[in-house]
Amino acid sequence: MKKNVGMVDKVIRILIAVVMVVLFFTHVITGTVGIILLILAGVLVLTSLISFCPIYWPFGISTSKKA
After folding, report:
1. Would you give per-residue pLDDT tens digits along the chain (67 residues)?
2. Phi and psi (nearest 5°) for 65?
3. C-alpha distances in angstroms, 2 versus 10, 35, 39, 40?
4. How far is Cα 52 from Cα 6, in angstroms, rounded to an integer?
5. Against a cut of 0.85, is the pTM above it?
6. CA–CA separation, 30 vs 24, rounded Å?
7. 22 within some domain
8. DSSP assignments along 8-49, one per residue
9. Is the CB of residue 44 less than 8 Å from the CB of residue 38?
């Protein structure tokens, strides 16, 4: 896997994930939508940690700096 997620993209993904988790645990978002958002938050954190987004890959998008 070639890295395609840059530092700014990582920070944004993690911030969005934190907001989703906080909204779920404060019961602002509940039920099925809350569960889906928790799963999405997990995916955002995972893609941030491995610096690879599978959705970017087919479109040739990369927010990481070129070496």
Report:
1. 789 999 999 999 999 999 999 999 999 999 999 999 999 999 999 999 999 999 998 999 999 887 5
2. -70, 140
3. 15, 30, 24, 22
4. 9
5. yes
6. 6
7. yes
8. HHHHHHHHHHHHHHHHHHTTSS-HHHHHHHHHHHHHHHHHHH
9. no
Residue 44 lies in a domain: yes
Number of domains in the chain: 1
d(CA 19, CA 32): 17
Question: Amino acid identity, residue 64?
Answer: S
Letter string b/e over residues 5-44, b meaning 16 or more CB atoms within 10 A of that residue's CB:
beeebbeebeebbeebbebbeeeebeeeebeebbeebeeb
Residue 1 structure tokens: 């896997």
